[in-house]
Specification:
Blueprint lengths: L1 E4 L5 H13 L3 E5 L6 E5 L17 E5 L19 E4 L2 E3 L5 E5 L6 H14 L3 E3 L17 H14 L3 E4 L6 H7 L2 E4 L7 H7 L6 E4 L6 H13 L5 E5 L17 H6 L6 E3 L1 H5 L2 H14 L3 E5 L17 H17 L7
Parallel strand pairs: 7-8, 7-14, 8-9, 9-10, 10-11, 11-12, 12-13, 13-14
Antiparallel strand pairs: 1-3, 1-4, 2-3, 5-6
């Protein structure tokens, strides 16, 4: 249910409504608006009719059922788009088209620092890099783990770029959170509900990637797990889905961007690297992402892709990334967005 507060309702009225929601066995989630506030009452669907009693409380204008199965992610509970702040002065979902770039995996100090300096020079606003790598083969490079996180922190100190890095296991959440500015959930963990609930208890942005066989509704329900635990800072990321096509690594569902924009207030990014698997396809798919209304992209960049420990074929060289960024600004501008110089 959504409890819409009256325009002049004060904090006392709001607190009383929150307390009553808890007494009725539901969890209140307040969304603060410019002119009025609303409260989402989330919990067991059966018996939710008892929440109608809130209609009689002081300061309440209306009590409305939420029809979508994902409650807090829905436009019903928040019709205006959310902007998720990564660090002060940088938010995903606002006017700026945000580019996150860096290698698939951290391989060493020279590699990550060289890449960080290059992508910042070209206009990237955050640095991506994997310290923990969930791989299809148990014999493939699995990442440098905490040593990789420490190198990411060094690169952040060197360039000022905030860090986006993946957390794979619930037991590593606390450790990764100590270093990361944004916690990434990879495609293989999209429906790892134990992990999502733990991340929902953090005060950090969560970059949630779509699973390779996940429907839009399932994707939003995964976001709901994070939101329902109290963390409202969720960024969705389309990274390609599994289809019969073999010409690309995955099939980039570019239509997911406008579809999600019609169903959720959460910001949406695109990962053209994992979607296509080919460096030559990253630029056109990045332009398409901007044109489709995405709030940003996350791209793999490596100074020596031929030597990369993982995902070399889909990694852009710094000079190719720089060239792409110059063209991408034009597409972002046409879409009504700005990009950092």
């Amino acid at each position: 249910m959504i409890i819409v507060m009256e325009k002049g309702a004060d904090k006392t009225d709001l607190d009383a409504v929150e307390q009553k929601i808890v007494e009725l066995g539901y969890q209140p989630h307040v969304i603060y608006g410019e002119t009025r506030n609303v409260v989402g009452a989330v919990g067991e669907e059966r018996g939710k009719e008892k929440l109608q009693i809130l209609q009689s409380m002081r300061g309440v204008e209306n009590v409305v059922p939420i029809l979508k199965p994902y409650k807090l992610a829905s436009l019903e509970v928040q019709p205006e788009p959310s902007a998720v702040e990564i660090v002060p002065g940088l938010a995903v979902g606002g006017k700026e088209f945000v580019v996150v770039a860096g290698p698939c995996a951290v391989e060493g100090r020279e590699q990550i620092c060289e890449t960080a300096e290059a992508v910042k020079k070209s206009g990237a606003r955050a640095l991506r890099g994997g310290a923990y790598k969930p791989r299809t083969s148990p014999y493939s490079f699995q990442g440098m783990e905490e040593d990789g996180l420490k190198l990411l922190a060094e690169a952040r100190d060197l360039t000022g770029l905030p860090i986006v890095t993946e957390v794979v296991n619930p037991r590593d959440v606390e450790l990764v959170a100590k270093y990361a500015d944004v916690m990434q959930v990879g495609a293989r963990n999209t429906q790892n509900f134990a992990l999502l609930k733990m991340l929902g208890q953090l005060d950090k942005p969560i970059l949630l990637k779509r699973g390779m066989s996940t429907t839009i509704q399932e994707f939003l329900m995964s976001a709901e797990y994070v939101l329902s635990e109290g963390n409202r800072r969720v960024i969705l990321c389309e990274r390609g889905i599994r289809t019969f096509e073999t010409a690309t690594r995955n099939t980039l569902d570019i239509s997911a961007v406008p579809v999600l924009k019609q169903q959720t207030h959460l910001p949406v990014m695109i990962d053209p690297s994992h979607a296509t698997g080919h460096a030559s396809l990253i630029a056109p798919m990045s332009y398409a992402a901007a044109a489709a209304g995405a709030d940003g992209i996350i791209v793999e960049v490596h100074p020596h892709p031929e030597k990369a420990a993982s995902d070399g074929p889909q990694s852009l060289r710094p000079e190719a990334f720089d060239s792409m960024m110059m063209q991408l600004r034009k597409f972002a501008e046409v879409a009504g967005r700005i990009m950092a110089e």
